[in-house]
């Protein structure tokens, strides 16, 4: 069946930053002469010392090195705040919408400037210096944005840990970056409940050793305080001067670290730097969403994920936008909350994840119909492939067929969108992220030979041929791991970890991860992380974890567990193991299905055949393929007989 194609409306295209001809001309120019293209785009920022070099990058395996605007000097907070003050001092920078629908606030650029300068001075008074790392473990409140921008104002590097991670996971990240300060809040209200952030920090510090904390009084809960270690945000800010000059930073100085799951080992600290990242976040925000002065932009992500970094804070604020920050969840007080907020704040661009769309779709159209959504001009999705049913519902019910949908494919590592429609330029097909952004050269490789498939129609692994300014620069403290994770399997290319199909029109369709990373509700989870949490339990001998299709979450977490001899399987033990994983990693890693496996399918050399485990988890065991290399083929029969996912 032919794909339905939705061309951009003529009126939209006529006033968009890019129509089809502009996109094609700019794209061609960006590939023909990247230096000239990105030189011009670099001018979207204010530089304290202008750069003389633009692109200096190589993917050559022997010496992978990525530098952009290398000798330029700038400050990110000055670009996101100070330079807008003359023209936008009284404009709203951040609209904050609280968990409770009665709580909201507008913060102007002038107020943002004052708060960030004061907080930067508080950091200094707590001993934070240029190059030091600050861990943020925050609710979705304006102070989270202040805390990020105050870091780069003084040249400190933030590492945000999502508030849903457990004390154990937080401790690992505090230690990994040798944090000098932790900024947190007493509690994080979400969906009418309060996550005990400060209590989690206390537990984390028992593991990592004490680090000074700065605690925002979000709910005002009366909590224990460790004298000399814990500092009140309110008290510290009351003393602080609002005068803090932005620190001159080299374009390649680190801006932030963000831990993300890979196929093996502990999460990797993805490092983004100052100049190229901001150019790329700013440009993608402007073009992908067709952002125009005066628009209200809402990205529903959490600042704990890269989407929140690039499209709640850095991209929008670099562009002088009004960005909406939402503390709550889509279903509180009811499943109409997103649309109530869109109506209340007259949102123009709305950006969310397919998992949220699928969940809301199941609640019925009445929750959407109640609200006036006529302000919406562009709808975006991110985080996982969107199934055509969800795409169509988003298009018809939310967008009333009038708002173009941008399905943005990108990664923590890429800093910003790599493939996405531009809403005035590129016809969309439900489920396809369409075509590359400026400067991005996707290639599809044959998985085993690594040969680039040159035919238009192709399927294989997705790699990128050359660098773009938003690309990650290294893994924090481990450049070899950066090279081996991204540049070793397919030499000369950046390997994305995703599978991909290119159709006859040259459109790209992401088919999901080809490594041992699963995507649960748009959040990346390494199966190895869940496995190591499970085997840390005293009753577990061995565990193997795979993803399986899940109606709402996209993928669910399916665990095969072999118990220590003498331990009896029971439903109580299932609950115990589920809670154990939640404690070790966080609720986002909660196993959906746990199957007791007396044995795992292994080759004679002891390697677990994950392909078989995936098939059984998918309830698709008719085509298991060759099992003759298994040490004990009979374990497969047991796995099939006791499978947990039966459709
Ligand atoms: C997946 C989130 C299909 C993909 C920004 C990628 C997507 C991983 C899409 C990165 C999309 C993200 N269509 N798949 N539009 N967007 N993905 O690092 O597998 O949390 O590799 O970054 O999510 O997840 P991450």
UniProtKB/TrEMBL annotation:
**UniProt: ATP binding residues:** 383-385, 407-412, 498, 513, 524
Q: Which reaction does it catalyse?
A: acetate + ATP + CoA = acetyl-CoA + AMP + diphosphate
**Sites where the protein binds CoA:** 190-193, 307, 521, 582
Keyword Metal-binding in annotation: yes
Concerning PTM, the database record says: Acetylated. Deacetylation by the SIR2-homolog deacetylase activates the enzyme.
Keyword Magnesium annotated: yes
Modified residue N6-acetyllysine is at which positions?
Answer: 607
CC terms in the record's Gene Ontology section: cytosol
| PROSITE patterns referenced in this protein's UniProt entry, alphabetically | AMP_BINDING (PS00455)
Family stated for the protein in its record: Belongs to the ATP-dependent AMP-binding enzyme family.
Binding annotation for Mg(2+): 535, 537, 540
Q: Which organism is it from?
A: Planktomarina temperata RCA23
- Under Enzyme Commission nomenclature, its number is 6.2.1.1
Source gene? acsA1
Cofactor(s) required for function per UniProt = Mg(2+)
Protein name (Swiss-Prot/TrEMBL): Acetyl-coenzyme A synthetase
